[in-house]
Amino acid sequence: MTLPPYAARRCWHAAVNPLHATIYFSPDLGTEFAALGVTHRVAVNLASRSAALGAVGPGTVTATFYNYRHDYVTAHLPAVWDTITPQQALAARLRAADSTLRRLLGPEAIASPELAEAADLALRATEGCVRSGRTLYAAHADLPVPEEPHLRLWHATTLLREHRGDGHVAALLLTGLDPVEALVSHAATGRGMTPKWDKAIRGWEQADLDAAAHRLRERGVLGADGDLTDEGAALRERLEAETDRLDAAPYEHLGADGLARLHELGGGFVRRAVGAGAFPHDLTGKG
């Protein structure tokens, strides 16, 4: 089925990914993990997202996450699994998703038929996802679907996020952007994380970011002012177009009408969450 141009990409950015990502900036996640003995925020981040893979080591996480500094990962994995099991981490993350969405969306939205409809649409889209070559998606696809509508929606957005993310990693390899170059060039679009958060979450130092910017200038991707050149903008668009191609199946399965409705409903919930302070004000931009 042919979808309107960029419709799936716009839905993912506006209505799918942000709903899942609320968990990473929620104090509830840290509270749940602290109760189990894991207090370092980087360990919480790494364990919560990788737990679906099992008690894996740093190599697997660096490979699948793609843009984290490896020694940043090795500082916490596999050591975190001496304190908490992957099953405990998954349960803690789901509890945090529950309390986070209840707080951000409010009781009326949580109980609304629109939220249940959005959950059904997002889950229907996941029926079009494929496991082959999608490590993080496949691991999360093996998890049970929660019963409550807001958690069903969060679970579905998790699957859709990781499905696109796995494809994006493949596209990055084809495009020839290494982990730090990917972050720096994305920031230059104005839509990626700022350097502050690349350092705090992914572990890169300013020297790493500066070196990547230098390489990108030499390749003609960035200009002297740090903005994307025409060539750089074209490269980023090729990257996103290839990611779109690799991620088309779930949205084609949902169909144009379903996709439009998911965008409408999910986008409304995202706007509500953003208005309630789901994300730091300086999270994205050129920094």
How would you summarize the topology of this molecule?
Layout: H1 7-21, H2 27-34, H3 41-50, H4 58-65, H5 70-74, H6 86-105, H7 107-110, H8 113-126, H9 135-141, H10 149-175, H11 179-188, H12 195-202, H13 206-218, H14 230-246, H15 248-254, H16 256-275
Helix pairs in contact: 1-10, 1-16, 2-6, 3-6, 8-10, 8-15, 8-16, 9-10, 10-14, 11-13
Pfam families: HTH_67
InterPro entries: HTH_67
Could you characterize what this model shows?
The chain is mainly α and about 290 residues long. It has one domain (about 5-275). About 65% of the residues lie in helices and about 0% in strands. The protein has 16 helices and no strands. Helix 1 (about 5-20) packs across helix 10 (about 150-175), helix 3 crosses helix 6 (about 85-105) and helix 8 (about 115-125) packs across helix 16. It is globular, with a radius of gyration of 18 Å. The mean pLDDT is about 95. Pfam families: HTH_67. InterPro entries: HTH_67 (IPR054058).
What gyration radius follows from the Cα positions, in whole Å? Answer: 18 Å
The string of secondary-structure elements, in order, is HHHHHHHHHHHHHHHH
Mean pLDDT: 96
Q: What's the number of helices?
A: 16
State the major sheet.
none
